[in-house]
Each structure stands twice: as C-alpha cells, then as structure tokens.
Fold:
Amino acid sequence: MEGLKGRRSYAAEFKRDAVKLVTEGGRRASEVAKGLGINENLIYRWIKQHKEDPQNSFPGKGRLKPEDEEIRQLKKELQDTKEERDILKKVVGIFSKTQR
Structure:
C-alpha cells in the first residue's frame, strides 16, 4: 500500500488559527502553509470558507451547518408525510371497495 495517502483531517480550531495568521496576522499563505506543513491551497480554501460563513465555516466531520441540518430535517419530515399520505390513500381505497 505504499504511495497511497489517506486524507488528513484538521480540527476547526487549527483551521481558524491558520486563517487568522493570514487574514489578521499579516503573514503570507505560503509562509503559514510551510510553517504548518500543509499545502498552500488548503489555506486558500479555508480562507474562502471562512469568508463565506465566519460563524459556521468549519462545522466538523459529520456535522452540518444549522441551515443544512434544518433542510435535512425538513426533507425527512416531508418524506415521512408522503409515506403517511400513501398509506392513507391505500386504506381509503380498501374501505371504499368494501363499502360497495
């Protein structure tokens, strides 16, 4: 398995600190990346994510941003409601046949 590298994951705090070094610390992204031992493109990606949504930019592995979590819950609720509706349609169909 030589040559195969797994994706490394970084804690939200690590990402925030790296972004701050560039955005508030006045250091170059290349300098910060080299000092942290990571690819410079990661720093730029993290800066972009942070600018788009400073409060929820790094939710963590398996966690969703609050808006995304709400959408997920609403989709599940809609699916459950559709299933209940379909069951009720079948029940009405069964009872309407027996009434004749």
Summary: The mean pLDDT is 85. The CA atoms of residues 45 and 58 lie 11 Å apart. The helical segments are 12-23, 29-36, 40-52, 66-98.
